[in-house]
Amino acid sequence: MTTTDELARILHWVQVGVEDPAVSPAALAARAHLSRFHFDRLVAAATGEPPGALRRRLLLERAAHRLTTTDRTVLDVAVEAGYGSHEAFSRAFLRSYGASPTLIRRRRPLTFRELELPCPSGVHFQPPGGLRLPGTHEETAMDVLQHLVDHHVATLSAVIERAATLDDEVLDRPVTVSVETIDDRPTLRSLINAMVTQEEHWLSALRGGDWPDESDRSIAGLSARHEAAGRDWRAFVARTLADGTLADTFVDTTCSPPTTHTLGGAIGHVITFAAVRRTLAIGALRTAGITDLGAGDPRPYLDARAN
């Protein structure tokens, strides 16, 4: 059985090989202070793939990411992946993906996870330049729901504990709604934009992309942006729940520095912060005389779908 430390050491050298395809397998083994034979055996035992096949697969996954997130030429991507010609790369790519590099570039995936090639280990290229390991356990939708409830109960306990340090005048003072930890001076337009951008942001992070363009804040523009982002976000969540991969991790490349999150963590984040913004937005509509959305309580929605 390969220990976690041993696996991390092995994958470090695998990543070196991905970062520099020109490094020969023998040179990689030497850098790891192992014989080529022993190095190959360790990699195969840890990942279920021969080192050469593992390296080629990871390089192709990185190439697929480059094709779908940059405007670099196919030849540039091919050379970076260690291929000597456009034709050789295209043949290898077609054999693995069942589609040409040009077609993959035109057919943007929902998230980069869709471009991960089948493998026994669950080790994949992780944008912008690392390796992703599978979750240590399977986490279901019920697990995440329970975690959200636990988070609420624990946070409420913390609020009460801190409130105990305040005097009665502060405790009984009328509350001015504060969203300082979420938004600065929110308006109805900015709240709607923040909710739409939240969908776009996490989808972009899951694709290994940059912060989304949120310049069109007209109601027509917000509607069009949400139509696309809401559809894709819902599809991503549904697929993640179906696959049981809520504990899997990804690197948020929109942050500086890039930050690692779990898929379940990202979903829980969106549910929580969107709920605050949605409640404020519905309140702003009510102030403007639009009351048909009620309080925005999800209970009637969930009740109706349980019948």
Automatic annotation (TrEMBL):
Keywords, alphabetical: DNA-binding, Transcription, Transcription regulation
Top-rank taxon, per record: Bacteria
SMART domains per the UniProt record, alphabetical: HTH_ARAC
Organism name: Micromonospora purpureochromogenes
GO function term, MF aspect, one: DNA-binding transcription factor activity
Chain ranges of the HTH araC/xylS-type domain: 8-107
Protein name: Transcriptional regulator, AraC family
